[in-house]
Specification:
This protein has one helix and three strands, in the order H-E-E-E. By secondary structure, the protein is mainly beta.
């Protein structure tokens, strides 16, 4: 998953391995050559992110936080 701008800053500040999130965006497939063989990979270019789990030190459910970045 790849994000840019303000959304990238928010993801860097709040997301950690194991966090439950919803990501919406577009798929992009890229390619590169390695040892004479073409390799392909796909990634999601994030446009919107919602944090779905609660903060670790809170006991009460937390409302979803939503960030929408327009291209």
């Amino acid at each position: 998953i790849e994000s840019w701008g303000k959304l990238a800053e928010i993801c860097q500040a709040y997301l950690r391995k194991g966090r439950l999130v919803f990501i919406e965006g577009r798929l992009q497939t890229d390619r590169y050559e390695q040892e004479g063989t073409m390799k392909y990979f796909s990634k999601v270019i994030a446009r919107q992110m919602q944090m779905l789990d609660k903060k670790p030190d809170e006991e009460e459910p937390v409302l979803e936080e939503e960030v929408i970045v327009e291209d």
